[in-house]
Design a protein that fits this description.
Elements lengths: L2 H9 L8 E2 L7 H8 L6 E9 L2 E8 L6 H8 L4 E3 L2 H8 L16 E5 L8 E3 L6 E5 L1 H8 L2 E3 L4
Parallel strand pairs: 2-6, 3-5, 5-8
Antiparallel strand pairs: 1-7, 2-3, 2-4, 6-7
Length: about 150
């Protein structure tokens, strides 16, 4: 099953969610914002960190950096580092640039930065580097079971 098919399967129970595919790349928040036609901050980038060695997926506004110290405090972890590409693929099943909070291959702790709530709709990657999935932040939180945290700078 492809990454896109995994996301399609994960959102199948939610008929209000729809994946949009683009000719152009959505590999970065900036490129995704251009393709969708929204502000970079409205892109819900999905990143993976290791908190005391345990994977944590963080969904945050594009263009904002994640503060490792804040994330560590939120997770009760002493050491937080950005996960390498191989770890991201192994844990999420997605390539960096296409990580989607829906359809993760493994059960993992998911956090959402509070800043996403500044927007009525945010756009997450949908498993590929040329896709977007619009969703209201609270709807996203409900479906993925994320903990809302304040971790972005």
């Amino acid at each position: 099953m492809t990454a896109l098919e995994r996301v399609q399967q994960a959102i199948a129970p939610y008929p209000d969610l729809k994946i949009f595919l683009f000719e152009e790349s959505t590999h970065t928040s900036e490129l995704a914002a251009q393709a969708v036609g929204v502000a970079v901050a409205q892109i819900a980038k999905t990143l993976m960190f290791l908190a005391d060695g345990e994977p944590v997926v963080v969904v945050a506004c594009g263009g904002r950096k994640i503060d490792a110290k804040k994330l560590g405090r939120a997770m009760g972890a002493k050491k937080v580092k950005f996960a390498d590409a191989d770890s991201v693929i192994r844990v999420t099943g997605f390539e960096p640039g296409g990580v989607c909070p829906f359809g993760l291959e493994n059960s993992v702790k998911i956090c959402m930065d509070r800043g996403l709530y500044d927007y009525d709709v945010v756009y997450a990657a949908a498993g590929t580097a040329n896709s977007a999935l619009p969703v209201a932040p609270e709807r996203l939180r409900e479906i993925i079971g994320a903990q809302v945290v304040d971790v972005a700078l």
